[in-house]
Design goal:
- The protein is of the alpha/beta class.
- The chain has two domains: about 130 residues, translation initiation factor eif-2b, domain 1 (Four Helix Bundle (Hemerythrin (Met), subunit A), Up-down Bundle), CATH 1.20.120.420; about 200 residues, Rossmann fold, CATH 3.40.50.10470.
- The protein is about 40% helix and about 15% strand.
- The radius of gyration is 20 Å and the shape is globular.
Length: about 350
């Protein structure tokens, strides 16, 4: 299994996704500030992986504090959480993980727990999130595998695989689950401009697993669908609103519209922690605007004229009406999503 990130005695170790697919190298974050920078620079990326990275960053900050007591550590804990929360605004898993660590810290503080015990508890919870994420991905894979065609092409956008999680993957977990059950799947991976997560990361992962894969330029999907080469679409998500609107990598909305036009099911695979019941619709989801250099340059070479305007939103929102089903570790949700989310929430309490 790809080790996207792992806790070590020296710090948090990440595979450097900016160097893939040609160079498999690892980066060691020895402070919570370095963890934050690694998230911002997309050395690690993908909503579930970002959430667990932040939790490990908090645990690392707690481990390295010079405070003598839990009460002395309070201002520093708040500073650590604030810095990590400011790294990627769209991925709700980031805030879910930080809020979970905050709740644990508040409970321990109320109980008068010693700082040493607080440090141990924060680390234990971060490691629990890591294990929970892998288990959730495998459960999603099992549910989603049933929805995949017995044979044919499956299109995916961006990278929602092991590299976007702690292992196995969300959308790619569904594909892996289908292949493990004997389904003959050929994956079509959108290159995913401008950061090329599909061309660099999805293709690298699937080739390592021996799953047949073809990389498409982002503007080829419609033609492939018209030719009958795509039987299903499955993508991940960075935030899902209460009504089922889905924020995912820029370009996902276009794929969803194309799938609808061609009568192809469009599935979203994401852990329950990606669902933001506090956000009513996709209109309220903050969209991260990234550095223009990701568009103007590639491989250190400038591609655009000096001074031209650049728009670089990292995500777009796909309205729920285009989503055939949402695959979670708790089961498969179908429209109307506000009702199915409520029903599943009640059933799994």
């Amino acid at each position: 299994m790809i080790l996207t990130l792992e806790w070590t005695s020296e710090g948090v170790r990440f595979i450097d996704q900016t160097k893939l697919p040609l160079e498999e190298t690892y980066v060691l974050a020895t402070s919570y500030q370095q963890v934050a920078d690694i998230i911002v620079t997309m050395v690690v990326r993908g909503a579930p992986a970002i959430g667990v990275s932040a939790a490990m960053g908090i645990a690392l900050g707690a481990k390295q504090t010079k405070a003598a007591t839990t009460e002395e550590f309070v201002p520093e804990f708040e500073q650590i959480c604030s810095l990590l929360a400011g790294t990627r605004p769209t991925a709700v898993n980031l805030f879910w993980a930080i809020d979970r660590m905050k709740a644990l810290f508040a409970e321990l503080r109320t109980q008068g727990t010693s700082l040493a015990e607080v440090q141990q508890a924060l680390l234990a919870d971060a490691l629990a999130m890591y294990d929970e994420d892998i288990a959730a991905c495998k459960a999603m894979g099992a549910y989603g595998a049933e929805l995949m065609p017995d044979e044919g092409g499956v299109l995916t956008h961006c990278n929602a695989g092991a590299l976007a999680t702690c292992g196995y993957g969300t959308a790619l977990g569904v594909i892996r689950g289908a292949v493990e059950r004997g389904k003959q799947i050929h994956v079509y991976a959108d290159e995913t401009r401008p950061f090329l997560q599909g061309a660099r990361l999805t293709a690298w992962e699937l080739m390592a697993d021996g799953i047949p894969t073809t990389v498409l330029c982002d503007n080829m999907a419609a033609s492939m669908m018209r030719q009958g080469r795509i039987q299903a679409v499955v993508v991940g998500a960075d935030r899902i609103a209460a009504n089922g609107d889905v924020a995912n990598k820029i370009g996902t909305y276009s794929v969803a519209i194309l799938a609808k036009e061609h009568g192809i099911p469009f599935y979203v695979a994401a852990p329950w922690s990606t669902i933001d019941r506090a956000t009513a619709t996709g209109d309220a989801i903050p969209i991260e605007e990234r550095n223009a250099v990701e568009v103007t340059h590639h491989g250190g070479k400038q591609l655009t004229p000096h001074g031209v305007g650049i728009c670089n939103p990292a995500f777009d929102v796909t309205p729920a009406k285009y989503v055939t089903a949402i695959i979670t570790e708790r089961g498969v949700l179908r429209a109307p999503y506000s009702e199915s989310l409520e029903t599943m929430e009640m059933a799994t309490r």
